[in-house]
Amino acid sequence: MTEIRAAGGVAWRPTPDGVEVCLVHRPRYGDWSLPKGKLEPAEPPLAAAVREVAEETDVRAVPQVRLPSARYRSEGRPKVVDYWSMRAVAEGGFQPGTEVDEVRWLAVDDAIRLVSYPHDAEVLAAFAALPRATGTVALVRHAHAGKRGTWSGPDTARPLDDEGRAQAAALADLLPLLRPHRLLSASPRRCVQTLDPTARRLDLPIEVCGDLDEPGPGQQRDERALALAARLLELGGTDGQVAVCSQGKVIPGALEQLSGRVGEDFTTPKGGGWLLVFTADGLLAAERL
C-alpha cells in the first residue's frame, strides 16, 4: 500500500521569555496540530514543509533542524510527515478558511498540552530540546559538467552540461527557501555556474573563494577538507544563512571533520547537498537537502 507523504514544521519566533511556536486549528477535524500538508508530485519534502507552513499560517519561515518524522495511519493508509524547525521571518494577515480557522502562538509547554495528537507533542518536545542555532549553511556539490576526459581545455574552465544546467535550475527553486544572504563558490567555472540561477533569483553576487576548492597539484585532500571545514564553521557562526558550492573530493572529509562521525557516508551526488545547522559549540545537524 502506497504511503502518504507530507511535510510541515515547528514555526517559532523569539519572545522576551524564550520562544513561541505556531499551532493551527482545523475545523474539519476539530483538532489543534502543527501546520503540515501533502507533498505535491515530485516536490522535495523540505520545499513542501515551507510551502505548507506558509499556506496554513501565512508565516514565512526559514527551515533549520530536521525534527523526528511522525508515522501513523490516515484513511486506512500509512502516512509519514517530515518536520523541520523553522524560524519565522515574516507574517502576513492570516485569514480564517475551511482548512484552518485559527492560528495560535504559544510557549512550547503550552503547545505540547494543547496539541491533539501524541506525535505532535513528541515533535514539539524534540524542538524544545534543541540548542540555539547560530547559523545555517546550504552546502552543495557542483552540478553535472560532463566528463573530465572529454574536455580539452583547463579543468577549471569545464562548464555545466545540459543535465547540470537542469540541476542548477532545480537548486534555484530550493536554495531560496533558506533565504541565504551570501552565496560562495569554489573557483571552477562549473561551481559558479551551479549557483548562477540562484544568484539571479535572489539578486545576490557570487563570492569566489579558493578555500572551497578540492586539491590542486601538490595539495593533500585532507588539508583541503580541513580548510573547507574551517570555512563552513566560520560561516555557521554568522547568525544567518549562507549557500556554498564546493567539490566532491573535499565535501565528505569536511563533513566528517565537522561532525566527528568517522566512516559515515557523506558522499554527495552532483547537484546534491546538505543543510548544515551550527550552534556556538559547532555543527548541530547535517541533513541531505
UniProtKB/TrEMBL annotation:
Organism per entry: Micromonospora krabiensis
Protein name listed in UniProt: 8-oxo-dGTP diphosphatase
Domain Nudix hydrolase: 2-128
Coiled-coil regions listed in the entry: none
InterPro entries: His_Pase_superF_clade-1, His_PPase_superfam, NUDIX_hydrolase-like_dom_sf, NUDIX_hydrolase_CS, NUDIX_hydrolase_dom, Nudix_hydrolase_domain
UniProtKB keywords: Hydrolase
One GO term (biological process): ATP biosynthetic process
PROSITE patterns per the UniProt record, alphabetical: NUDIX, NUDIX_BOX
